[in-house]
Amino acid sequence: MYTPDIYKNENQEEIKKFLQENSFGILINQTNGKLCATHIPLELDTNKEGNGILCGHISKENPQWNGFIDNDQILAVFSGPHSYISSSWYDHENVPTWNYIAVHVYGKIKIIEGEAVIESLKKLVDKYEKNSENPVRVEDLSQKTMMQTRGIVAFEIEITEIQATRKLSQNRDEKNHQNIIAELEKVNTNQSIAIANEMKKCPI
Questions:
Q1: Would you call 9 helix, strand, or coil by DSSP?
Q2: How far, in Å, CA of 132 to CA of 105, rounded?
Q3: What pLDDT score does 202 carry?
Q4: How far apart are CA 1 and CA 94, in angstroms?
Q5: 4 SS3 class
Q6: Which long-range contacts (CB under 8 A, 24 or more apart) does 167-172 make?
Q7: What tens digit of pLDDT does each residue of 32-80 get?
Q8: How far apart are the first and last CA of the chain?
Q9: Strand, helix or coil at 6?
Q10: pLDDT at residue 134 tops 80
């Protein structure tokens, strides 16, 4: 991912938090000579060796997984808030742009089987059920329902590189930076407010 130095985020704790909060990503690889992409949750975890991994699964009906065997190289893309930035918000003439937060994770994928698949599903379900009024637990599902796990391919991605971008008008002076925040708040969409809040936390 092309990222000018001024927008690079190398704060590992921030990146970890972002991946945990924005875990619905895009899994990209090459299968049968074509690029394939699937939108799925990819959960950040640590393997037995203490290395960072992403865990996930896709349907066996999805031909993308066939590429995991021939080529273990994977790219996972995670997007955060984003918003248009009008050049009319500056005190000088300039071009419009877009502010956004994104993380690209590169790694090596391997298919997992057996009990590791169930443990991966437990972690996934527990994470998203924890705030439910009547949380579902994998342990409580019937054997008939659990038979559906035969229709998935579970995997782990050992992370080899992370590239993180926080493009939040860091190239503007204090006056223009504050004005962009004010204008984003006037736009008053979920995305514009989220970017405004991120800009408030970002030193320039």
A1: coil
A2: 30
A3: 84
A4: 24
A5: coil
A6: 167/7, 167/98, 167/99, 167/100, 167/101, 168/7, 168/99, 168/101, 168/195, 168/198, 168/199, 168/202, 169/85, 169/99, 169/199, 169/204, 170/6, 170/7, 170/202, 170/203, 170/204, 171/6, 172/90, 172/204
A7: 999 999 999 999 999 989 899 999 999 999 999 999 999 999 999 999 9
A8: 22
A9: helix
A10: yes
Residues in contact with 143: Cβ distance below 8 Å, sequence separation at least 6, in sequence order: none
Confidence of residue 29 (pLDDT cuts 50, 70, 90): very high
- Residue pair 111/164 in contact (Cβ under 8 Å)? The answer is no
Listed in sequence order, the residues at least 6 apart from 82 whose beta carbon sits closer than 8 Å to its beta carbon are: 98, 99, 100, 101, 191, 195
DSSP assignment, residue 61? T
Bridge partners of 54, per DSSP, are: 44, 157
Q: Tell me how far apart the alpha carbons of residues 180 and 141 are, in angstroms, rounded to a whole number.
A: 50
Contact present, 43 and 28 (Cβ < 8 Å)? no
List pLDDT tens digits, range 153-168.
999 999 999 999 999 9
How far, in Å, CA of 117 to CA of 112, rounded?
Answer: 6
- Compute the distance between CA of residue 120 and CA of residue 76 in angstroms, rounded to an integer: 18
Rounded Cα gap, residues 188 and 194, in angstroms: 9
In this predicted structure, the answer to whether residue 200 has a pLDDT above a threshold of 90 is: yes
Rounded distance between C-alpha atoms, residue 159 and residue 187, angstroms: 37
Please give the distance of CA 24 from its chain centroid, rounded to a whole number: 6
